[in-house]
Specification:
This protein is mostly helical. It is built from 23 helices and no strands. α10 packs parallel to α23 and α17 packs antiparallel against α18.
């Protein structure tokens, strides 16, 4: 009896350090139960939405525990700001309500992502001794019986994703792109629909909200496609974990133990790992959502087929890239001009850079550079136009880097990608290859783009600048080309997986479409055999402990 009670308790309570993952058998048991009761309510739209809202709350509780309170606050807050925006007859008031909504969301997100960083940086800059005190932990310890340390900050799983989704609703409502939801339950369902809740794809209001009121519709072929995406995502995740545990993590944890050749393999291995990990999650999310009757947009479009950096960012994490473009880049002025918002964003980034270094003199240096840029822009129209057309691109990429974390490494990673985008725009003016149809030219540009993206990820993946320095040292001073064939032989299986992964990635889109369609048309028994086969392969490659999805930390 005690064992049964303990098992029952484990099912319905949150276990710290063990988020609910798509790769766990528990999730698929949970999903089977969800479908069982879904069969009773799916025809009644209002009841269906409330049911899926409650299911999503449970899913987030099992993933992030007491941080469910933050999700509830976001839903209640933006639902009411949305009502105020819609009901107001004054454009000025609409703008005020929208501003309040955005500020509240960004303060909440900023607190959990950067409050500890700002406290420690302030102490370092000004010699103060402010003790960080986690107000949220104090609140939950007092009223909800938790036992969090109040001098540490824990990042809630998926907070960036559901915050961005919620912001899209109030902005789209202000712009007139959507109609207000009928009630708070429908709004809550839009924000926290569990397949995309904790790691995307980010769902914008005007792309998804209308589906909340559509009747359930799933054709036989769509069911086959949904199952394909789920199996495809699971295989990606398992292979990504195998590559990480058996090769990539070792390289990045202790680069001084490996030759430059191994390090380069590790860098390209990480590019494949992060793609398979992240796109694997969204593949599963798309499949699970489709079975429930909802269509999520594609989040990855073979990004390593990109022939330039600009094309890459149109293919990689499309939901975030398009969100940043629609709600940040274009409002800042796009490629037309810098705006007041552009320079406010630059000022924020400057403050962050100063705090990262802990050096006040950097503020004077940055201020001097700003004056120099202003003077040059005043006397040079060509320079001014160049700054105006590229400033928002750099700001967006730098803020994208900062979104990933308060670290020099993420800032550098974002800056390098921004610089790559700017250089590509300039290169297009003189490139003799921009209209080329040559296979050789395309292959070279694809490999060049992959190499650039992979090497910027050294900063993204490394734990410190010291690790980055060691990695570049191994490549430049200890390359070990004479060990090439021994390394290939020693890591034959894991490197074969990496090579096969890239080759599958580079298969033409038309061929991929054909085998997806073929799978979707198979009889149910054949699909069942495919499920058994995938489970068998997963069991062979699975590490002892499944790794959390990489983007859970953002």
């Amino acid at each position: 009896m005690d064992k049964f009670l303990t098992y029952f308790k484990d099912i319905f309570t949150f276990t710290e350090g063990k988020p609910l993952l798509f790769t766990q058998m528990f999730f698929w048991g949970f999903f089977a139960v969800v479908l069982l009761f879904y069969a009773l309510v799916y025809k009644k739209i209002a009841l269906r939405n409330i049911y899926l809202l409650l299911v999503s709350f449970f899913f987030y509780y099992k993933t992030s525990g007491v941080f469910l309170v933050l999700l509830l606050f976001t839903i209640c807050s933006d639902y009411n700001w949305g009502r105020l925006i819609h009901n107001s007859t004054s454009q000025r008031n609409k703008k005020i309500f929208l501003t309040c909504s955005i500020i509240l969301n960004m303060l909440l997100l900023g607190y959990f992502k950067y409050a500890y960083f700002f406290t420690t940086s302030t102490n370092e800059l000004f010699g103060t001794h402010f003790a960080f005190f986690n107000q949220f932990s104090h609140f939950t310890n007092t009223f909800l019986g938790t036992h969090f340390s109040v001098d540490k900050l824990i990042l809630p799983v998926g907070i960036s994703f559901f915050t961005f989704q919620s912001i899209s609703y109030t902005v789209d409502l202000y712009r007139g792109n959507v109609k207000p939801v009928k009630n708070i339950f429908d709004y809550g369902f839009f924000v926290c629909f569990f397949p995309h809740l904790v790691a995307g794809p980010i769902v914008k209001a005007h792309d998804f909200l209308y589906q909340v009121y559509l009747p359930y519709d799933l054709k036989r072929k769509e069911f086959g496609l949904a199952l394909f995406w789920i199996l495809n995502g699971l295989m990606k995740k398992i292979v990504a974990d195998y590559i990480a545990v058996n090769f990539v993590d070792r390289i990045f944890d202790s680069p001084n133990y490996y030759s430059g050749v191994e390090t380069v393999f590790g860098i390209f291995g990480y590019s494949l790992q992060i793609y398979m990990d992240f796109s694997g999650y969204t593949d599963i999310a798309i499949g699970v959502a489709l079975i429930l009757g909802f269509r999520l947009k594609t989040n990855f479009n073979s990004p390593y087929k990109a022939q330039d950096v600009s094309d890459f960012w149109k293919r990689w994490h499309i939901s975030l890239s398009s969100w940043l473009k629609e709600y940040l880049y274009i409002p800042l002025g796009g490629n037309r001009k810098g705006t007041v918002g552009s320079y406010v964003a630059i000022s924020i980034l400057a403050i962050v850079l100063v705090m990262l270094t802990g050096k006040l003199w950097l503020l004077l240096v940055l201020f001097g550079l700003a004056i120099a840029f202003a003077l040059i822009s005043y006397f040079s129209v060509k320079f001014r136009n160049s700054v105006n057309t590229n400033i928002n691109l750099m700001v967006t990429m730098l803020l994208g880097g900062l979104w990933h974390g308060s670290s020099w490494l993420f800032i550098i990673w974002g800056g390098l990608n921004g610089l790559g985008l700017v250089i590509h725009k300039l290169w297009l003016r003189i490139s003799p290859f921009k209209n080329s149809t040559s296979f050789m030219v395309k292959a070279i540009t694809v490999l060049f783009t992959l190499t650039f993206i992979s090497f910027t990820r050294i900063f993204f993946r490394s734990d410190s600048l010291d690790i980055v320095s060691l990695i570049f040292d191994r490549i430049s001073n200890h390359f070990g080309l004479e060990l090439f064939f021994k390394i290939i032989q020693g890591y034959s299986f894991v490197l074969s997986l990496v090579l096969i992964g890239y080759l599958i990635h580079w298969i033409p889109a038309s061929m991929k479409e054909k085998y997806r369609e073929f799978f979707a048309g198979l009889p149910i028994y054949a699909m069942a055999l495919a499920v058994v086969g995938v489970i068998f392969v997963m069991y062979q490659l699975m590490s002892d402990e499944m790794q959390p999805f990489i983007y859970f930390q953002f």
